[in-house]
């Protein structure tokens, strides 16, 4: 004896199940774990941190923010972090673009070079810092070679300062910018440039009129991801920089407030300011992207 199936998978004449009553289907159940994860580990901590920032140990609700923007040791970390993150991100994007163009044709050479270029991802920040200390430190190979070749006479300092942190961020952030840019470059149909060339377009015109508009979403997203990663710099600022000077970044200041001063509400206020600064920069980049491309935020490949 056969049964009739009702729309939505139920049996005709049977009482609707709890999923049908709630309007849920199989897709909803697949998405639910991800939604719960995002809420538990992103949305709830953000809401909790925001509420905590308005509960200072003494004073009014806005005292933590007033203190952050009136004490030089706190508000100066904004500029110090931007002065590190923006140049590192810009360098990564501009280095990734020509290399991705050179490797846009699939070949064994491209795969080998790509694998080599993404090696820093596997090393981690601490190991990269250790390598830079051994290579660029006061007694490192690079410094000794410069002295042996008599290219420099006096002491030269490339670590435990701004330069050391900047180089570390470029090394660790480059693979992400390169892989994202390469994925967009390889998605552009090469016949577009060839068709433009037949009409007399120079290589620069081809890049400006064809490649750049199509690459704008990828470059913007790559810049945003690399910037967020660089802006949250912490281990490199301690191991390769001057934690009490030029590289006292926002993440370090927030860490000191939370685990050295044991002032969680003030640390939460610093973290909120840090998040707002990142959002402002990301919004500016996405707005600049719209000058070249109007479409989905994530852009389209090719």
From TrEMBL:
Where in or outside the cell is it found? Cell membrane
Q: How does it sit in the membrane?
A: Multi-pass membrane protein
- All copies of the ABC transmembrane type-1 domain together span 78-285
Supply the InterPro entries for this chain: MetI-like, MetI-like_sf
- Asked if the keyword Mitochondrion belongs to this entry, the reply reads no
What's the domain of life for this entry?
Bacteria
The main location is membrane
Q: Name one GO cellular component term.
A: plasma membrane
Write out the entry's keywords from A to Z. Answer: Cell membrane, Membrane, Transmembrane, Transmembrane helix, Transport
Q: Name one GO biological process term.
A: transmembrane transport
The record lists the membrane-crossing segments as 29-51, 82-103, 115-136, 162-185, 210-234, 266-288
Family (UniProt):
Belongs to the binding-protein-dependent transport system permease family. CysTW subfamily.
Name of the protein this chain belongs to: ABC transporter permease
Q: Which organism is it from?
A: Aliidongia dinghuensis
Q: What is the lineage of its organism?
A: Bacteria, Pseudomonadati, Pseudomonadota, Alphaproteobacteria, Rhodospirillales
